[in-house]
Amino acid sequence: MQNSTEAVRGRQQGGGLINPRWFPRWLKPVVHAACLLPLVWVVLAAWQDRLGANPIEAITRFLGDWALRGLLVALLVTPLRRFSGWTAVMRLRRPLGLWAFAYALLHLLSYVVLDQYFDWAVIWGDILKRTYITLGMASAVILLVLAVTSIPALIRRLGGRRWVFLHKSVYLASVLGILHYFWMVKADTSSPWLYAVCLMFLLVLRLPFPHRRNPALKS
């Protein structure tokens, strides 16, 4: 009740949609729980043998889908702050990004462990010969670097400007991930096209739109 009152008070005082500093205590646990649900679902589905004739492929693709979805949701945070004025929402960007990396890592591990059984010769051959594997590995390496440099000590060591510049490569990782999806599917490209359109929309939202002046401030 107190959190909702603070949100309303901030809206009334600032004239915006929401109090910029409003951040209820329950929000981050709810976000973590929501991000965990797909993983719980796929584990239960595998346990109950509900993943079809090729469960390994189903698991790998499911985890890759949620890695891309997590990236897109994490990239939505900054436009949300920009257009709503809710600055506290930026506190969700790091956990959302780390969850996206977690799903990308599980996607990679499902390929290495379940599909190839740690056959490094075959894996290395795939990286060199199959374009979609090359793109996926490149995206995974970028996400690994971004996850590691999200540690507070490394953020301080890098410095704010270099850290921000480095973490803009999340867009490159997203592009590579979507291209990886395009090259992987053989017929139905509707899903990668949907992700590509969402990413293009998020990029458009980062363009420097002119700000409207509040008419009440005009003399």
Describe this structure in words.
The protein is mostly helical. 74% of the residues lie in helices and 0% in strands. It has ten helices and no strands. The longest helix is centred in the N-terminal third of the chain and has 30 residues. It is globular, with a radius of gyration of 20 Å. The chain starts with a helix and ends in a 14-residue tail after the last helix.
Main traits of this protein?
219 residues; mainly alpha; 0% strand; disordered C terminus
Task: Describe, in short, the structure shown.
This protein is mainly α and 219 residues long. It contains ten helices and no strands. It starts with a helix and ends in a 14-residue tail after the last helix.
**Rg, please?**
20 Å
By secondary-structure content and strand pairing, the structural class works out as: mainly alpha
As a percent range, the share of helical residues equals: over 70%
Categorize the overall geometry: globular
| Record field, number of beta strands | 0
Please write the string of helix (H) and strand (E) elements: HHHHHHHHHH
Output mean pLDDT: 87
- Low-confidence parts: 213-219
- Individual helix count: 10
Largest sheet: none
Topology:
Elements: H1 2-14, H2 27-47, H3 55-84, H4 93-115, H5 120-129, H6 131-148, H7 152-158, H8 160-167, H9 170-184, H10 190-205
Helix pairs in contact: 2-3, 2-4, 3-4, 3-9, 3-10, 4-6, 5-6, 6-9, 9-10
